[in-house]
Amino acid sequence: xxxIGPNPFARDAQGRLATGIGTLFPRRHxxxxxxxxxxxxxxxxxxxxxxxxxPPDQPPPTERHLDWECGESVDLIxxxxxxxxxxxxxxxxxxxxxxxxxxxxxxxxxxxxxxFLFAHNPRVRQALRERGELWRLATPAVDREAxxxxxxxxxxxxxxxxxxxxxxxxxxxxxxxxxxxGLAALADAALARQLDEIALHSATRNRHRHPEIAFFGVDxxxxxxxxxxxxxxxxxxxxxxxxxxxxxxxxxxEATEPLLRxxxxxxxxxxxxxLATLSGGDQDHAHDESPFGWSSDVFLKTRWLPGGRIxxxxxxxxxxxxxxxxxxxxxxxRALHDPLARGFTANLxxxxxxxxxxxxxxxESRGPAPTGLRGRRGVYLAEIKVRGExxxxxxxxxxxxxxxxxxLEELDGRGRPKDIVRAMLDTDEYTDYTLDRRLGCLQxxxxxxxxxxxxxxxxxxxxxxxxxxxxxxxVVYFERDYLPGIPTNQIxxxxxxxxxxxxxxxxxxxxAAAPNLIVGRSIHPESHDVPGEVLxxxxxxxxxxxxxxxxxxxxxxxxxxxxxxxxxxxxLAYARAYAKPANDRHADLQDPWAFAEAYLTxxxxxxxxxxxxxxxxxxxxxxxxxxxxFNEDGSFxxxxxxxxxxxxxxxxxxxxxxxxxxxxxxxxxxxx
Length: 672
Hints:
The chain is α+β, with helices and mostly antiparallel strands. Helices cover 36% and strands 15% of the residues.
């Protein structure tokens, strides 16, 4: 390998990368890091080719040949956390993988430090998924707070000051309104050079047809490259230069959305808009709105994990997993280790046998757990391709909230740490309780995933009990098919604004609310006198749209919290919470009154159906869990009896009337 330019990871006095980009020419084993623009780096390579000694019997290379040589290149981006991002040419993915191999073998860059851009592009992700390497996609940050903290470190320069936010997918450097206004602090000569740089490169496009420089958050019809037309800034008198910059800054501000005029990583609107701008892929090439056919929210929160690749029917463990977690000192490597990943992978290979590829991801949770919600929150996705099947299977894996690890952290009835036998028995008891709750929910007609399978993996104990540390304990998890759809609390306002869509959704929500209310699905209440915090319409309910684009069915993907509140004597205590689905959407609906009426009508009808079914087949309902132990402290048999009694003692008309009382759109004096 030959390098033209500085070490790509070298830093300047301020700690920023010297260039931040590079261009690799795999055929020639040459890496160019000189300058901060890829097209200039290809020019440097062209000069290098001209300077190479030619055999005496061969003529010097033609311009056409030089053009071809320059085209056999791969754009690289070097990040502040020592990652190398490969920006693949979509019609030459072979070059991208060749560059990947050279970076690892010739330059010694660890595999886990090399990532591929264009995660949204079907061709790129298909190539990586077939290698079992979705974990090497450079996806949007799953930790937005960490990303916000690093915003100030990702600004880059071309030749002047570092004022640009760089999009590695497109190669565009974005200027914000605040950064442009801040140029007024520069000396005259520096200001003139900076403005000339912006004028030149905002009017030029890179080889991917994206502008080299663009303006963040502006209406392009009001401000853009044409605004800089005129004489060169370096030829202007100082007072004219300042006046010209002030005028451009005013135009920039007026063309920018108000919430985007000030750079503030703590302001969600600015931070999320910038993240979307910098993580957006190549809009000139087809890509799904929801990659992998999943909801965009799931995609954004999935951290892919290394597993391995399958060659000739044999599973080859990813090299990064050859280093034990305790020996891994690199934070990037430690982040890729998951104590359950190998177990999940082994189970999938054992069960499905002849696989073509397997990818495993962990769904990252944003923010702290809801108040009162304790236990483990492990959620994973697995995508497997079984040989002979046309489409891959996507599986959803949810770790049981209470396992041996969690039970060992508890005290027994005498205030002492639980012994291992008690912890294991309590874990088995909770597994049965989880499955019994599912059966109870299905008995009331709750729409749940059709297939759920209980499985086990093992993990080393790392808790506070020193005597158990390092021992392997089983971990229970539940596997089901992934359900593509939209969480009810994330449906776009534009869809809610469609009356047909809104009414279809209202009816589905109302029908789903009835059994959810009956089983007291909530976070366990702090006391017996206060109802628990209701769990409904909070992300676990998925809307599946029909071929007409309207909501066709609603599925509750996780019945956690069901039967948690079985002591509250009257379902009327939940009225305010079950008015929220209508109230939370009030501002986005064309007809909030019609939505609320449809919601309440469906809720009342489904409640009456369940109640009538229970009264007609009372013996069947009462006997369903009679074989289980009954105790007043809250065994499932006890909860089932109390929930049935509460259902039987509630008048549907009174319940819907009480909910109606809390619905804003149905308040007295509000017209339809």
